[in-house]
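Morning - fructose -6-phosphate inputs below, output right after.
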Amino acid sequence: DKGEYRHFMLKEIHEQPKVVQRTLEGRLGDGQVMVEAFGPQAAELFAKVKNIQIVACGTSFHAGMIARYWLEELAGIPCQVEVASEFRYRKVMVQPDSLFVTISQSGETADTLAALRNARNMGYLASLAICNVAISSLVRESDLTLLTLAGPEIGVASTKAFTTQLVALMLLTLALGQVRGSLAVDKERQLVEELRRLPARLGEALAVNAAIEQLAEYFADKNNTLFLGRGAQYPVAMEGALKLKEISYIHAEAYPAGELKHGPLALVDSDMPVVTVAPSNELVEKLKSNLQEVRARGGELIVFADGRAGIENGEGTRLVNMPHIIDALAPILYTIPLQLLSYHVAVFKGTDVDQPRNLAKSVTVE
Ligand code: F6R
């Protein structure tokens, strides 16, 4: 039931504060993540983990790419991320003491399942599934599971499954950092407090809806768009580009902003909007000079940033103001406006938002 919403996708976007809350519930203790949430044998197992291999497809793959920044920066664990369709068919050199992590909304994606089945004979310590469906092949066949509690996702374009995956992956980062002693106690406490506030912050981010709806018309006649981000915002940009492609059928490509000069700048003109996620962090000054390069070539910018980033609305720059959030959680918050952007562009163009052409909700064949 779509309730008051015109589409399931819009309903699911608005459910995010609630389902993020649910995914956190019972998993946070006093200043710590509860490692038992990953299963009774998790503490002993996590203590041995020296490497992580993440495998997933599509949106779930983007969640894995963001987790890599977290696992390496916060928990100090080397991490590799790969799409399942590639992982399953290549000769992989497995690092000793590696944990194999799959991410999937449905738990039935053929390539992800095949990768898990291959991994069983490859010498991994154990497998962990981050999954939204409790009764699924992926959960059944994995050693450990952490369920995302997003509830059924009906819209083909994944929204609330993605943000709850990110929450689950942050819990994994904190749990591994805690057990291995590689994350400072104070830092974990701070992140746990910020996670508790996250549902409210997501609610604030949803308030940009009206501002984004006004941008939809501008995009509707465009054929190409570029999405830029740096650091963990690069996969956020990838996810934003995927959403726009899927439901509005506008070609969208994501680039790490530092790569602009190495090719894509040649494409920039006033007909190609450049969408940028720019939370204030240590990379924002570099990002701002990338944006100037775009402006200098007549490119039109759509920027999502908080007040501290020092980016202003003006000629050729449409700024959407975001609430400020601790940098580690910014990828979760900045996903919201990009979901809303693709949604409103699709509605404006009149596409079938919940059932995009040629796509299936669960890809159970290769
Ligand atoms: C994008 C989308 C797909 C899925 C992908 C993996 O909006 O929904 O890219 O993310 O097919 O599906 P799961 O997560 O079920 O394994």
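Note: DSSP finds 14 helices and ten strands in the chain.

O.
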